[in-house]
Amino acid sequence: MEESAPDAAAGGVLYVQKGPATLTEMTGQEVEAAVARTRLILLPVGATEAHGPHLPLGTDTMEAREICRRVALRLAAQGREVVIGPVIPFGTSSFHLGFPGTVSISSRTLIALLAEIAASLHRTGFQDFVLVHGHDGNLPSMMVAAQEIVDTLPETRAVVLNWLAPLSRVYHTIQRSTKGEGHGGEGETSRLLVTHPELVHPERGPVHHLPPEVMRKIQGPEHVKTGGGIFYATRSYRDHTPWGHIGDPGLALAETGERGYAVIVDWIASVIARDFFSG
Ligand SMILES: [Zn+2]
Question: What is the pTM for the complete model shown?
Answer without folding.
Answer: 0.96
